[in-house]
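Still learning folds. Look over my entry:

…
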Amino acid sequence: MDVIAPFQPATPAMIVGHAGPGEPLPLELGEPFALLGGDRLGPEGIPFLVMHEHQPDFLRWVRECCAAMLAAERPWFGGGRLVIGGAAGAGRTHAARWLARVVGVPHGVLNLTDPVIAANVAASGEISEALGASPVTVAMATARCANPIVTVVGADQVGDDVLAGLNAMIDPERCRRWREDRLGVDVDLGEVTWILQSHGARAIPSWVAPGAAEVTLQASPSRKNTVLALSICLEAMGDLGIDPRAERLSWNQISEQLPNDGLRSAKMIYANMVNALRICLRATRTTPSSTLPSNRIAFQGE
């Protein structure tokens, strides 16, 4: 008697690239791209794993996004548009990167202060100023994912021509057929989560992202034993290709290599964490296995 395989729900997907009839699409944009994160939308999934209790407003936004997707029966993660502010070093980029890692989608950076990227965003129609494919399109095509999380840097520093192009990318209606000039393709950016960084004194004009959610991050806690430090530790492990389940590293080992000061910003914590992890790895890989501690990453919260 044949055994019936357990039911596995299909991963939702969508086609993001559109061109004229019969025209081949570059980067396989005419193939279905996955919409990811739906298996983690519940309260014990993304909101729990994002580990940002020190940023309650950001965590509340994550919970609301997950609840909205569940209520709409859209089984993937979508956050729409968020303007995220806060003091320098509060962890804007870390919050976006860590959320993307937890969701299971790529994280891209759209740096509008880069003249090449700015020209691509500002271009309208197939004109010479479009110098390259958007990093958003490249990220989607590389990961075969239609709902990446994109950090937008510099929206508070560029001119109205670039901001008008950004508005076209993130507007809920117009973004469904955003013109990728260099490729000659219309790209559906409707499921992208946009996180626009704002630096307080240089506000982003309200017309760029009308109706966007707004969150202001608090200053980063400077102590070693915080949830922020742990999430940055896990982020650094991912960037260094370290599997926390395979390496016999304890939080005490890692913490001992962190300075007592110099932890005043998320960027500084990340840099010191990378250095600490490299030191610990060198030590564990030159120490006989019988003398290694038996506990792996162990952590005491705030």
